[in-house]
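Weekly structure sync, notes
Attendees: PL (lead), two postdocs, one rotation student
Agenda item 3: pending single-chain targets
PL asked that the sequence for the first pending target be pasted directly into the notes so everyone works from the same version. It is reproduced below exactly as submitted, 370 residues in total.
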Amino acid sequence: MSDRELRRFLLLVIATLLSLGCVSVYSASAIQASAVYDQSVRFLVHHVGAIALGLGVGLGCLALPYPRLRQSAKGLVLGCLVLLVLVRLAGPEIGGAHRWFRIGRLSIQPSEFAQLALILYLADFLARKRDVIRDVREGFLPPILVTGLCSALVLFQPDLGTSIVMGAVAVLLLVVAKARWRHIGAVLLVGVVVLAVLIVGVEYRRRRMLAFLDPWHDPQGAGFQILQSYFAMAHGGLFGQGIGASLQKLFYLPSAHTDFIFAVIGEELGLVGTTALVGLFALLLGCGIAMAHRAEDLFSKYLICGCIGMIGCEALVHMAVVTGLLPTKGLPLPFVSYGGTAMVNNLLACALVCQASRHASEMASSGAVS
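Predicted structure, written out during the meeting:
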């Protein structure tokens, strides 16, 4: 399969995920939207609007000169750091968190775009410092410090899930860049200790961890959401109850169209449907890995790895939470869950993947390697 065919296949997989997402969002949200807003298509309309905006932003990104995109990496990460500080200080409190700017009816979550800005910065830095990446002071410590600062600002919102994704993507890029394993191991050890402290030291996180270990201990409280997810998946069986026939979405399963949409898909399409969905994400990751493997330009290679790694990590965490393999954490399923900023961010990430792959192909055909 040629590079162009790989990109086309990737776009086909994304289009399939978006189509499934539209159907699932409408199915999961129609009754709630009708009861609360008297408009059954309210969430679907917003979801389609986010897709349209994401496609527009992605096309705009594809039109940018690739060298200018790389040159903007430092400026973008600095701008996102400022936004992360401002949203914590001036953003409205929603559900106990300061994660969004409200502009009229529009909500913007800076942490989503901070992930992409961080990936651009890391890809540029690691490509420039490829000869000293095994040196702690010059090659390894700077990306760790920048990642730590971004993650800490996101954590203060608070948003532990996005912080973990940022750290995981940074570690992935360091592995791809061939940093020393003992340095990576030390970072992972520190990360595990910090994560344990963050969980033990905050009451609601402790409750989530206890609910993860034994959801039946508090079935009407901390364990309620994961138990309803279990019921949805079990009710779906092998072939599901049919599209639109989910019972758990009828005000039993909280966040059915966002953080737990995989459970609704499991109930309506069964094990066959969820397996097919997992297969689509596997194909997406496979395309990304193939593109990164073929890219001889290091910046393009790292950019593809970072964007695909971010999407894959978010999908893995979402499905693991819904199936009880991880404690409850609100992360949307990429391209499928309802969510404006997250949808735009994921589509922009895919545009960056296609642009990086196209640039790497052009450099390879001209015989230039950076």
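Discussion points:
- Strands lie at 101-103, 106-108.
- The mean pLDDT is 91.
Action: rotation student to compare against the earlier draft before next sync.
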